[in-house]
Specification:
- The complex is a heterodimer.
- By secondary structure, chain A is an alpha/beta fold.
- Chain A has a domain at 96-221: Periplasmic binding protein-like II (D-Maltodextrin-Binding Protein, domain 2), CATH 3.40.190.
- Helices cover 39% and strands 17% of the residues of chain A.
- Chain A contains 18 helices and 16 strands.
- Chain A has helices at residues 23-30, 33-36, 49-57, 70-75, 102-110, 119-136, 151-162, 181-186, 199-205, 215-218, 231-236, 238-256, 261-269, 278-285, 315-327, 335-344, 347-354, 403-409; strands at residues 11-16, 40-45, 63-67, 85-90, 93-94, 96-101, 141-145, 171-175, 192-196, 209-214, 225-230, 288-290, 296-298, 303-304, 376-378, 385-387.
- In chain A, the strands form 5 sheets. A 5-stranded mixed sheet of chain A has the order 2-1-3-11-4, sandwiched between helices. In chain A, strands 8-7-9-6-10 form a 5-stranded mixed sheet, with helices on both faces.
- Chain A is globular.
- The mean pLDDT of chain A is 92.
- Chain B has helices at residues 16-29, 43-50, 64-77, 90-99, 111-159, 163-177, 181-194, and strands at 7-12, 32-37, 54-58, 83-85, 101-106.
- In chain B, strand 1, helix 1 and strand 2 form a beta-alpha-beta unit.
- The N and C termini of chain B lie far apart (61 Å).
- The chains are: A alpha/beta, B alpha/beta.
């Protein structure tokens, strides 16, 4: 493919999908953070992750707001138009909800589901509902995710499997474009979905959905979206790439500041971004989740753009996604594949790019995921750095050095592997 | 060529006019059976029922992720509908994306059979885009002509001018201000409306 292009050497063409965590990319592009780094951004909204991926492959785009597992799947050759993508920065963690239809919520409540978004009790109740439907010969439940290679797919599958529900066997998983989730739920095409906000809230406000848990209830530091960059674009001009990382980082810090939430909500509400009312977006940014009859729960740390090293691309995050791709039969465990998956995430580039800013970053490239129960100080490049808890709801611990043992210990595997 | 050798192409497009332009092109090429569906509910079930060899879909369709997910799950679960994004060659992939079209093909289908289909789809997508631009232009020209007619009428009424001199006045004003006649006509209509000379329509 012709990857040479003439023109402005300071131009970055970036794509995004309308989900709240596109905020750092949108803010970097539209609020002057990129400009301050001498970059000119051509920002485009895409209609699907597939189109966003295709546009990177033919270099209509240089970088994009992407689902965390997407670049890994691309580097493993699991996606069409596979390409070498790298992840120099995370766009934060948290921000998803699992929302079910009002009908399913009634069944869950009857089966003893907790009302306050707790992950374990909810999935136990769900397992009972699934078993009961099987006994009665009622059709399988259908849950939707936004894309196959998404954090949502692996979070939802992990959550279901912990209660013994086999994804794609006992509950069907389909993909639905995020803005169409509420309508699909209302029409009874799906019984639930796992998607980034604001779509859970939109379904709640419309009266067709009930949020039952969040991704941070499943995994407290659950990585969600990333800045995916075409590797050859990054290598063609490393300094330009570093400027982009700095611009998005500064935007992420700005997005995390409660003082800026209203302005950020207004920015995201614009017709060319979400085209949604400001209060819906503001509620997301504040971590307010609507439950019954307009009652809200404020979920601490629901959406994290930069605090607690949320932008840092841990190799152990990439490793966990790889472990789940193996678990669900999408790829076979191999040393080479594992190395390639981890090589997609680039903490080294993150550190180099942010060095001039004097930001406190971890000195390690990987951590044992699920091992931090309370805020903990960790070795850092400068100053003091505390990491927020990263535990899994079922107490699972993932040591990237022990992937084989981890996989062997997972209670439920893909249908084909059982 | 017997019927079994004929490829079954599914065109998924919410835009019925474009879909029929593509359908016609593919049928003319004569190597295929063509089915057209829009993006209504139950799309996935319809695809399973129709069991196409090739799917041609608008690149801007939000349903592409849902399609790809179904193909991915089908491959893992060895269900019937396992298709792949067309990878015939880099040049045609780029041309397809530029034209705004995306294609999926069943596994094992030969390049030589896919290429002419994709080429036709690309040509037809481009042809539709040109047609759309021409239509837009024609529409805006039509409304410009209407505006000029109305502006002429205002001048004829308020300044007792002949049609010819009313037009001449519009033209000379446009030239002086380095604007298009239609723009001058627009300003005149707005001004007349503000002054109560012209009823808003």
């Amino acid at each position: 493919m012709n990857r040479v292009r003439a023109g402005d050497p300071n131009l970055v063409r970036m794509g995004f999908m309308p989900l709240t965590d596109c905020a750092p990319v949108v803010a970097a592009s539209l609020l002057g953070f990129a400009e301050a780094e001498g970059l000119r951004v051509n920002l485009t909204k895409e209609a699907s992750w597939a189109t966003l991926r295709d546009r990177i492959a033919v270099r209509h785009l240089d970088a994009a707001h992407m689902l965390a597992p997407m670049p890994i799947a691309a580097c493993l050759g699991l996606t069409p138009l596979a390409d070498r993508l790298i992840v120099p920065l995370m766009l934060g963690f948290g921000g998803n909800t699992i929302t079910v239809s009002r009908g399913l919520w009634a069944d869950l409540k009857a089966a003893g589901a907790p009302t306050h978004l707790e992950a374990k009790g909810t999935v136990r109740a769900l397992a009972e509902v699934v078993a009961e439907r099987r006994r009665r010969g009622v059709a399988k439940l259908v849950f939707a995710v936004v894309h196959h290679h998404s954090a949502h797919t692996y979070q939802l599958s992990y959550w279901l499997a912990a209660a013994g529900i086999v994804p794609n066997v006992e509950i069907d998983i389909v993909a639905v474009p995020p803005p169409l989730m509420p309508a699909a739920l209302a029409a009874g095409q799906i019984d639930g979905f796992c998607a980034g906000e604001p779509w859970g809230r939109v379904a709640s406000v419309a009266g067709c959905g009930r949020c039952v848990t969040t991704n941070i209830a499943i995994w407290r530091a659950s990585p969600e979206k990333v800045l995916g960059v075409a590797q050859d674009w990054a290598e063609a001009d490393p300094e330009r790439h570093f400027r982009l990382i700095r611009a998005v980082y500064k935007a992420a810090v700005w997005c995390d500041d409660p003082a800026n939430r209203e302005e950020l909500a207004r920015l995201l509400a614009r017709p060319e971004i979400f085209d949604l009312p400001v209060p819906i977006l503001q509620a997301n940014l504040e971590g307010r989740i609507m439950i019954d009859d307009g009652e809200e729960i404020r979920v601490g740390g629901f959406l994290n753009f930069s605090a607690s090293a949320a932008t840092f691309p841990w190799k152990s995050n990439a490793a966990w996604f790889y472990s789940q791709m193996v678990r669900w039969g999408e790829t076979k465990m191999s040393a080479e594949g594992y190395a390639r998956a981890q090589a997609t995430y680039r903490p080294d580039l993150h550190r180099t790019a942010l060095a001039p800013l004097g930001v406190s970053l971890p000195t390690a490239n990987a951590k044992i995921e699920g091992s931090i129960d309370v805020e903990t100080a960790v070795p850092s490049t400068v100053g003091r750095l505390f990491l927020a808890p990263d535990s899994f709801f079922d107490g699972g611990v993932f040591d990237p050095e022990q992937i084989d043992a981890y996989l062997a210990s997972q209670p439920v595997k893909a249908a084909a592997q059982r | 060529m017997n019927d079994r050798a004929l490829l079954h192409i599914l065109v998924i497009d919410a835009n019925r006019i474009r879909a029929s332009i593509i359908e016609e092109g593919l049928k003319e090429a004569g190597q295929a059976r063509v089915t057209v569906i829009d993006e209504a509910k139950g799309l996935m079930r319809r695809i399973v029922e129709l069991d196409p060899d090739v799917i041609v879909i608008d690149l801007e369709s939000p349903n592409r992720d849902a399609l790809e997910h179904m193909f991915q799950v089908s491959r893992a679960a060895k269900r019937p509908v396992a298709m792949f994004v067309d990878r015939t060659d880099d040049a045609s992939i780029e041309a397809a994306i530029d034209a705004g079209v995306s294609a999926y093909v069943v596994d094992g289908l030969k390049k030589e059979r896919i290429k002419p289909i994709l080429d036709t789809a690309i040509r037809r997508f481009r042809a539709f885009e040109r047609l759309r631009q021409e239509l837009d232009q024609a529409r805006s020209e039509l409304s410009e002509r209407k505006r000029i007619e109305r502006a002429k009428g205002i001048l004829m009424r308020t300044r007792n001018l002949s049609e010819e001199s009313a037009y001449a006045l519009l033209r000379s004003t446009a030239m002086q201000q380095n604007k298009r006649i239609a723009e001058i006509a627009e300003s005149l209509i707005t001004a007349a409306r503000l002054l109560g000379e012209e009823e808003g329509t």
